[in-house]
Amino acid sequence: MSERTRGVSIELEHLTKIYPGVAAPAVDDVTMTIPAGEMVVFVGPSGCGKTTTMKMINRLIEPSAGAIRLGGVDVTHGNPVELRRRIGYVIQSVGLFPHMTIAANVGQVPTMLGWKKADVRERVEQMLELVGLEPSTFAGRYPRQLSGGQQQRVGVARALAADPPVLLMDEPFGATDPITREHLQLEFRGLQQELGKTVIFVTHDFEEALALGDRIAVLADQSRIVQYDTPRVLVGAPAEEHVEQFVGSSAHVRMLSLLTAREAASPSVAATRDIPAEATLRRALDELISGVPALRVVGEDGKVWGGLDFQGLCRSVARYFRDPENARTPEGMTIRS
Amino acid sequence: MTDLTVATALASGVPAPGAPARRPGRARVLTTPLVLLLVLAALYGWVRSKDLDSIEVRTLNRDYLVTSVLGHLKIAVLASALILAIAVPLGIVLSRRSARYASPLFLIVANIGQALPAIGLLVMLTLKLGIGLKVALIAFVAYGVLPVLRNTIVGLQQIDPSLVEAARGIGMKPWQVLTRVELPLAVPVLLAGVRTTLVLTVGVATLATFVNAGGLGDIIVNGLKLNRLTVEVTGAVLTMCVAFFVDWLAHMAEDVFRPRGLT
Predict the structure, then answer these.
(1) Are β-strands A166-170 and A198-203 bridged in parallel, bridged antiparallel, or unpaired?
(2) Between 20 and 30 A from A335 (CA), which of A66, A178, A281, B78?
């Protein structure tokens, strides 16, 4: 596949949206940096301004004040149409054009950018393959002939077609059933790691945020950033009650899904049953509960990281709760990539 | 949400890829013309069975009938073309968000145009502008503009707003959003309005005779004035056949121009 544009950083500076006739700002003075190539999830209750904040980035909503920089370049005042063609956009209702074939939908942006027909066709095929849809089967179909999950894949393919450095996603998997959603999340997580795009993902579902985000921004009313951190820090050291409510009462259990077997492995524990190094502690716990006293943590390359028993698992989880700073170690940052 | 559910439901039983979405059935394509031919043949037989006097023969001959039918079509087509040229662009402008307060006003005016008796309008215009084709066209346009205008506005407004947002979001310019997404999706509703207007116009074009603009109204009025039933009936049946034929043509056009992929 041809060379790909990697993600660029997104900087929001004092971004504010005030609607005329409404006293309180919809978005009040948001400043944050989204590092290049990371997936950042905005999570918060309905009406907190997370979607408004996101739509200001591709200027579907024009900011009242503040600045947006993509890769260091101020895009607050240029041509919004040009800007949007460099930013992929996926929405909850998918928004595929029902009167166009799947190929035409996916090829919209490249066509608008004036690509040659053959290039557009080639790119459409690449994109459909990328999202797991066989081009010869799907290219000529119309959106209504596809299932909800398939449509959402096409939505992602359309957003990626012109190879934008940045992707904005507004509850893209919200309308699919739980099983399809989990599939799409897993697939998209893998895709994002492969492509290295900068992604802003809006959702009200904290589970989804934990499953997808390199970092999560927990937002409250007027898009106030309550906490902006990695999933581990959010779960281990919620900044205030608002975040704690999101995390809920099962914080330790949640943490299990965020840690890998490798991190809890200890050389002093002997074991025979193997578990992959990148498996979550949740899976490890499942095996331990089933009666296996200890697990041997083996990397993909065959390297043995050590053994893992129940005590080790508990210690490993507790570490993030006893001292939140542990969660901020560089290892904690890179572990999910 | 409903769209997705519908799409999912459809996904199981949809035609093979590349299959045409919905084409008119052969039966529907042929029925109307066949029935019209039968009606015309019956009319011909009935008129032939009569002994026509010299007055009737002056109207009921090939040249006169052909001229009248063509004249009628010309009036109807011109009026419809003018209506489309006015109502579609106006409808597009009125469907923009910025015009949402103005559109009810225009719809009221168009409603009045249709509610006024066409013949009254024609008489009033004649007092002001004299007689002839131009006056007839003005009256018919005022009479027939409503369905196209209303359906253009409704057709554009019924589009799922998230589609328009998606179109803008992926970087379409405003006119691209209009021509690539909004108008194609409004086509089915718009064409239904066009069809209504066409049929209305064919009917009302019989009144053109009162301003000396020709058409099938000439035959009907001749028949009434001269008290000749065969002439009246011929004029009326021909008008009806033209109206049905135009309706049929418009129906075919709807099927051809309806974007594929829509249910």
Answers:
(1) parallel
(2) A178
Distance, in Å, from the CA atom of B217 to the CA atom of B57, rounded to the nearest integer, reads 17
**Of B44, B49, B76, the residue nearest B62 (C-alpha):** B44
How many beta-carbon pairs under 8 angstroms link A with B? 105
Q: Which residue from A155, A311, A187, A68 is spatially nearest to B170, judged by alpha carbons?
A: A155
Cβ–Cβ contact A3 with B under 8 A: no
Q: Is B214 left (phi over 0), alpha (psi -120 to 50) or beta?
A: left
CB-based contact (8 Å) between B184 and chain A? Answer: yes
Residue the block writes with tokens 């997705």: B4
Question: Of all helices (H) and strands (E), which one includes residue B229?
Answer: helix B229-257
List the one residue out of B179, B191, B244, B229 whose CA is nearest residue B35.
B244
- Residues A133, B166, B23: CA angle, nearest 5 degrees: 65
**Whether A66 contacts A42, CB under 8 Å:** no
Q: What is the rounded end-to-end Cα distance, in angstroms, of chain B?
A: 17
Judged by a CB distance cut-off of 8 A, whether residue A173 touches chain B is no
List A298's β-bridge partners, or say none.
A276, A304
Q: At A314, is the secondary structure helix, strand, or coil? A: helix
The pair of three-digit structure tokens given for residue A144, joined into one six-digit string:
């209504």
What are the pLDDT digits (tens) for B95-151? 988 887 888 888 888 888 888 888 888 888 888 888 888 999 999 998 888 899 999
- Position A249 pLDDT exceeds 60: yes
Q: Which helix (H) or strand (E) holds A91?
A: strand A87-91
Return the structure tokens found at B86.
């006015």
- Mean pLDDT along residues B197-226: 90
CA–CA min distance A113, chain B (Å): 10
Q: Which two tokens mark A174?
A: 């919200």
Q: Where are the alpha helices (DSSP H) in B50-132?
A: 54-59, 62-95, 103-115, 118-129
pLDDT at A76: 93
Tell me: the pLDDT tens digits for A92-124? 888 899 999 999 999 999 999 999 999 999 999
Tokens coding B242: 């033209």
Question: Residue B11: what pLDDT?
Answer: 38
Q: Which residue from A minimizes the CA distance to B21? A: A142
Closest partner CB to B184 (pick from A99, A108, A112): A99
Out of B11, B168, B185, name the one closest to residue A99 (CB): B185
For the segment A141-163, what is each residue's pLDDT rounded down to a tens digit? 999 999 988 999 999 999 999 99
How far apart (Å, rounded) are the C-alpha atoms in residues A25 and B78? 54
Sheet with A27-34, edge to edge strand ranges: A27-34, A10-17, A65-70, A73-74
Give pTM, 2 decimals: 0.80
> Within an 8 Å CB–CB cutoff, is residue B258 touching chain A?
no
pLDDT tens profile A165-223: 999 999 988 878 888 888 889 889 989 988 999 999 999 888 899 989 999 999 999 99
Q: What is the ipTM of this complex?
A: 0.82
- Average pLDDT score, chain B: 85
CA gap A303, A296 in Å, rounded: 10
